[in-house]
UniProtKB/TrEMBL annotation:
<dbReference type="GO" id="GO:0019003">
    <property type="term" value="F:GDP binding"/>
</dbReference>
<dbReference type="GO" id="GO:0046983">
    <property type="term" value="F:protein dimerization activity"/>
</dbReference>
<comment type="similarity">
    <text>Belongs to the GTR/RAG GTP-binding protein family.</text>
</comment>
<keyword id="KW-0539">Nucleus</keyword>
<dbReference type="GO" id="GO:0005765">
    <property type="term" value="C:lysosomal membrane"/>
</dbReference>
<dbReference type="GO" id="GO:0019899">
    <property type="term" value="F:enzyme binding"/>
</dbReference>
<dbReference type="GO" id="GO:0005829">
    <property type="term" value="C:cytosol"/>
</dbReference>
<dbReference type="GO" id="GO:0005525">
    <property type="term" value="F:GTP binding"/>
</dbReference>
<dbReference type="GO" id="GO:0010507">
    <property type="term" value="P:negative regulation of autophagy"/>
</dbReference>
<keyword id="KW-0963">Cytoplasm</keyword>
<dbReference type="GO" id="GO:0060090">
    <property type="term" value="F:molecular adaptor activity"/>
</dbReference>
<keyword id="KW-0458">Lysosome</keyword>
<keyword id="KW-0472">Membrane</keyword>
<dbReference type="GO" id="GO:0034198">
    <property type="term" value="P:cellular response to amino acid starvation"/>
</dbReference>
<keyword id="KW-0547">Nucleotide-binding</keyword>
<dbReference type="GO" id="GO:1904263">
    <property type="term" value="P:positive regulation of TORC1 signaling"/>
</dbReference>
<keyword id="KW-0378">Hydrolase</keyword>
Length: 335
């Protein structure tokens, strides 16, 4: 079949007890729902296959695991679900008693690891907006201790768990998702390298490669990430998309699918802040956009930035086409 850049996507499974916050995370990260609106969500009680495959670089499913779920029940095709999954995110409600959640985590991890040894396990210690700073650290320490002790006791000390403090009321949930997704991108080093080249050749201070729909950054240059910069870039995406929605065609994602909308391959925007900072956004492909931060005097020659961007985009296309060829080869699909 035809090779579409970015077609083979990182697959993520979101698990956790009922009411831990899974649907809220999904709505806020992938569907632009505001955190307050999640108060009225109906609880999930079955596997939800969120079909974001046409709009996002990331693909994921939600799986509730309240008490009665039996991993060995034939109705749950765990071979299929864990087999094709890159990362398993387990959500723990930090505002609630988490003992039940910890024992469910243990079961899920053990089962998943048996089926697929390469799964990355990511624990979201969630709803930490309700905790004081001291309490956050203490909760994280306690959960980490108990979870790893339990694995060690079961003789599974070869399994590694990563922990993230998250909340849908700030950018921590996006930041955590970014870290999870980045681990699943085999070409991360190549992407980081390309971003380093772009920024040094264009007097750019910081560059993020974003999955536009989710505002997850799938790569950034090698300089450290400042949360404020990241938030600024997220806001930039919102502004550009809102502008495209209002002054472009009505449905931006529909228009992208048809390739004739306002937000397309040529979409670009410069925003100058009165602090002397300039934000630059440029569409890379169907899912991805480059967002950069630079100083005002660094963008005197926009032509150079645009030229360097074109080179960057061509390189990105190469990276993902190569990845798909590889994937097609290993699964035996015709190219
Ligand atoms: P699910 O059953 O795991 O899908 O859980 P829901 O997404 O339905 O969330 C249950 C409740 O937790 C809802 O009332 C949400 O508003 C709330 N919630 C989700 N995430 C957060 C968070 O980060 N902080 C706070 N304070 N509440 C949250």
């Amino acid at each position: 079949g035809p090779v579409n850049p970015g077609e083979e996507k990182p697959r993520i499974l979101l698990m956790g007890l009922r009411r831990s916050g899974k649907s809220s995370i999904q709505k806020v990260v992938f569907h632009k729902v505001s955190p307050n609106e999640t108060l009225f969500l109906e609880s999930t009680n079955k596997i939800v296959k969120d079909d974001i495959s046409n709009s996002s670089f990331v693909q994921f499913q939600i799986w509730d695991i309240p008490g009665q779920i039996d991993f060995f029940d034939a109705a749950f095709d765990s071979e299929y679900i864990f087999g094709g999954c890159g990362a398993l995110i387990f959500v723990i409600d930090a505002q609630d008693d988490y003992m039940e959640a910890l024992s469910r985590l243990q079961m899920a991890v053990t089962r998943a690891h048996k089926i697929n040894e390469s799964i990355k396990f990511e624990v979201f210690i969630h709803k930490v907006d309700g905790l004081s700073d001291d309490n956050k650290i203490e909760t994280q320490r306690d959960i980490l201790q108990r979870a790893t002790d339990e694995l060690n006791d079961a003789g599974m000390d070869n399994i590694h768990l990563s922990f993230h403090l998250t909340s849908i009321y700030d950018h921590s949930i996006f930041e955590a998702f970014s870290k999870v997704v980045q681990k699943l991108i085999p070409q991360l080093a190549v992407l980081e390298n390309l971003l380093d080249i772009v920024i040094s050749n264009s007097k750019i201070e910081k560059a993020f490669l974003f999955d536009v729909v989710s505002k997850i950054y799938i790569a950034t240059d090698s300089s450290p990430v400042d949360m404020q910069c990241y938030e600024l870039c997220c806001d930039m995406i919102d502004v550009v998309i809102d502008m495209s929605c209002i002054y472009g065609v009505r449905d931006i994602f529909l228009s992208r699918a048809r390739d004739d909308g306002a937000f397309d391959n040529e979409s670009a925007s410069f925003i100058k802040l009165n602090s002397g900072t300039v934000l630059f956004l440029r569409e890379v492909n169907k899912h991805l956009a480059l967002v950069c931060i630079l100083r005002e005097d660094g963008c005197e020659n926009r032509g150079i930035i645009q030229y360097n961007f074109k080179c960057f985009r061509a390189a990105i296309q190469e990276v993902f086409v190569a990845r798909n060829k590889q994937a097609n080869k290993s699964t035996g699909h015709p190219q």
